[in-house]
Amino acid sequence: MNGQFFEGLKNRYGIDLNHQQRQAVVHKNGPCLILAVPGGGKTTALLARTAYLIEEEKVSPGNILSITFSRASANDMKKRFYDMGLGNGLGKVNFSTIHSFSYRVVMAYNKSLGLSPRLIEGAEAGKWSKVLLLKNLYLKFNKEYISDSDLDILMNDISYVKNSMYDRSQISKYKSEISFFAGIFNEYESVKRDNNCIDFDDMLVQCYEILMNNQRALEAYRKRY
């Protein structure tokens, strides 16, 4: 392993990695699983690995994509990386959430088809709101207003069946605490489809489908990252 690089980490940034962490840092080709308890140094190892790829393997920072789940985690990794001076200012690494990356893939693909989907969650929701749509659909099917707790259950169930990529027959058999769940779900999907809308779950599912079924798109991202 590159002893000089690790000595530099220790002397310049106070990062002293153990043997297993160093193995992860110098790994270049193919998958590498880092498994550790909370506070076990996974993030530090990943940041050191990113610096190693840039400084020792001469990988362009723009070709490195670091994906995590939450925006807070992505921002924390980005801040820690640049606050420590890792990478020596040789360019910007893309620190992203899984949803943000998926959204870029989906929007770029749709743009190539002349389409521009409308996002109905988050700051861009506007008058097209997932929450409002689901409230109205629940009222239509159940003839009463939905409670906040049931709305959480409904949204969680929708996310579960979408991310599990259930087909129509599986959805009709899905046991939800929400009455008429299958009907609400199917009409929710129809309304979104008819009005060119997507939610956060669609980002993940559609990104997966694009990369699985469109070889040209897949190769473009493989080449970039």
Layout: helices, strands, pairs:
Layout: H1 3-13, H2 19-26, H3 42-55, E1 65-68, H4 71-83, E2 94-97, H5 98-112, E3 118-119, H6 130-142, H7 148-163, H8 168-173, H9 181-194, E4 197-198, H10 200-213, H11 215-224
Parallel strand pairs: 1-2, 3-4
Helix pairs in contact: 2-3, 5-10, 6-9
Low-confidence stretches: none
Number of helices: 11
Helix content: 55-70%
- Total strands: the figure is 4
Coarse morphology:
elongated
Judged by helices, strands and strand pairing, the structural class is mainly alpha
Query: Separation of termini?
Result: 24 Å
* Largest sheet entry: 2 strands, parallel
Provide the succession of SSEs.
HHHEHEHEHHHHEHH
**Beta-strand level of the residues, as a percent range?**
5-15%
Strand order of the largest sheet: 1-2
Average pLDDT over all residues: 91
Explain this structure.
It is built from eleven helices and four strands, in the order αααβαβαβααααβαα. The mean pLDDT is 91. 60% of the residues lie in helices and 5% in strands. β1, α4 (71-83) and β2 (94-97) form a beta-alpha-beta unit. α5 crosses α10. The chain is elongated and about 70 Å long. The chain has helices at residues 3-13, 19-26, 42-55, 71-83, 98-112, 130-142, 148-163, 168-173, 181-194, 200-213, 215-224, and strands at 65-68, 94-97, 118-119, 197-198. With 225 residues, the protein is mainly α. The longest helix is centred in the C-terminal third of the chain and has 16 residues, at 148-163. The strands form two sheets. It has a two-stranded parallel ribbon. Strands 3-4 form a two-stranded parallel ribbon.
